[in-house]
Amino acid sequence: MLIKVMGPGCKKCHEAEKVVREAVAEAGSDATVEYVTDIAEIARQGIFSTPAVVVDGTVKSVGKVPSRAEVKTWLGK
Amino acid sequence: MANDCCTPGGNTMILACSGGSNVGQLSNQAAVELTREGVGKMFCLAGIGGQLSGFVQSARDVPNMVVIDGCSLGCAKASLEQARVEMKSYVVLTDLGIEKNKDLNLNPKEVVTVKQAVKAALGII
Q1: Does A63 touch chain B (CB under 8 A)?
Q2: Which of B3, B4, B6, B60 to mutate to test the interface with A (most CBs of A within 10 A)?
Q3: Which CATH number characterizes residue A23's domain?
Q4: Which of A12, A29, A72, B43 has a CA that sits 20 to 30 A from residue A4's CA?
């Protein structure tokens, strides 16, 4: 599983990355987490605002920091 | 590192039916001008209709939204319903007394009427 946290480097985007990494660790998942700052790649996803979280190509969250519980549901945990 | 996110939290999504009639194109023109004026940000209704996850999830998660349909067929509204997106503010141009026709030469006064109605729906006038 590949999880991309997308954002240009703002405080909320880093918070989203932290939450996702924590949730992955807590769940014992082997998912790979990437932090994407490339504006062109973000734009290709059709995202209205950041931070956004994309799981295996599907956008799961836009414009907010997800909760760890929410992330775990995306992991199937 | 910026302290605030790149997109302000109060940003409003504007979705217009942009259909092939005067009222469809009035909805589009109003959305364009309201975006330029900073009232909100026009977004791709076609992406939602096409069920592309980035567009659909963006519409689901955005705190403020206004949907502009040209007529009571409600194509924009139906697109959101199909994508299971909760609609917030809603404006239908024919409900404003604008008659639907196929003349794509837009009446500037009607553009102003639509923009005012959208602002009223958003509670900013």
Answers
A1: yes
A2: B6
A3: 3.40.30.10
A4: B43
Q: Determine whether the interchain pair B7/A64 forms a contact, defined as Cβ–Cβ distance below 8 Å.
A: no
Structure confidence by residue, pLDDT tens digits, B42-72: 999 999 999 999 999 999 999 999 999 999 9
Q: Which residues of A are catalytic?
A: 10, 13
- 3-state class (DSSP) for residue B41: strand
Encode burial over B91-107: b for 16+ CB neighbours within 10 A, e otherwise: bbbeeeebebeeeeebe
How many structural domains does chain A have? Answer: 1
- Tell me which residue range forms the domain holding A67: 2-74
Q: Which of A62, A64, A74 to mutate to test the interface with B (most CBs of B within 10 A)?
A: A62
Residue B73 sits at φ, ψ, to 5 deg, of: -60, -30
pLDDT one-digit tens code per residue, B15-25: 999 999 999 99
